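General statements about sequence and structure are easier to judge against a single worked case. For one protein, we set the task of working out the structure tokens from the amino acid sequence alone. The sequence in question and its structure tokens are set out directly beneath this paragraph.
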Amino acid sequence: MKRGLTGRYEVTTTTGERVEAFVPAPLPPQPPLELSGSLHASIERAALSLGRLDSLSVLLPDTSLFLYSYVRKEAVLSSQIEGTQSSLSDLLLFEIEQAPGVPIDDVVEVSGYVAALEHGLARLRGGFPISARLIREMHAKLMERGRGSDKQPGEFRRSQNWIGGTRPGNAHFVPPPHTEVAGCISELERFVHDETSELPRLVQVALAHAQFETIHPFLDGNGRVGRLLISLLFCDYGVLSEPLLYLSLYFKEHRDEYYRLLDLARLDGDWEAWLRFFLEGVALTADGAAATAGDLARLFEEDRERIQATGRRAGSALRVHEALKARPLATLTEVVSRSGLSFPAASSAMGQLVALGIAVELTGKKRNRVFAYARYLATLGAGT
């Protein structure tokens, strides 16, 4: 449905020129959304895919093993949308302080995304609501170090920003004036906590993400915080028990369509077109995550059987294998800590895994060696 402009323009002066900044109307859309027909089918399909994803504990004995690396894959993808070149291996190396040649600014930026997500989840689990305060706290974690650390981390902007173009006057889109940001975020907060709403949770999440991107409340980092908000809302609403759904790869692969449909929702009021796109992404991404989890479960079992077939020496190698499942890129010192083996025993067992083609040594050195669970990283790193 084309409702027309879903907000108002406010004329303001920025950098000495007159601009029209867009102030979005509060959610939900009016007239109400048309959720029948094909859109209803899209909601059901996405909900079914999310349900399968949420049952990952059936496939993976310890979901946290998958979650540790999967969260980091999302951090890499979300940051790549903003122009970083860091890989999943770069981030894991950085986290164990073994990162020769890694683009340090990029990887610091990616690690900030992990910190922001983990902070948000910890606060949610502690009973703190999704709110303007939590959004600012996550932004502070995201922007604490590296590029953007000088752009008011943890604070809503106090000046005009814009999207595309070299200045507000030739920008593709100009978000609300800074004087309107707090009010817009307050309305968004009200919407996500509206217990009287009859909208499906999936629809609420889709609308909330689009509205946040329209408000663009920070000087930098808006895209990453907006994508984090999706994961947090799914957890807060009980749609997922763990943050296992990330849409960054989908948004990255369909970047032009993503921006086109956000514009269509703002300028024409066609929220239904945006919802179809978002729901398709949820279904495809959830199915992909579940398939990856299944692939990893089979990989772990196949490798375990190969290790067991080695006979008497299998015990220590299995313990090292478990350590690599928890951290697919690790030093021998970390493996010793996680496996409970002595350094010589862990070194010998790791040698077995290298001989079996399960582990790969990355440095080529005799000391401070770093080992990777190669097939695990390859499976998880698809798309990065």
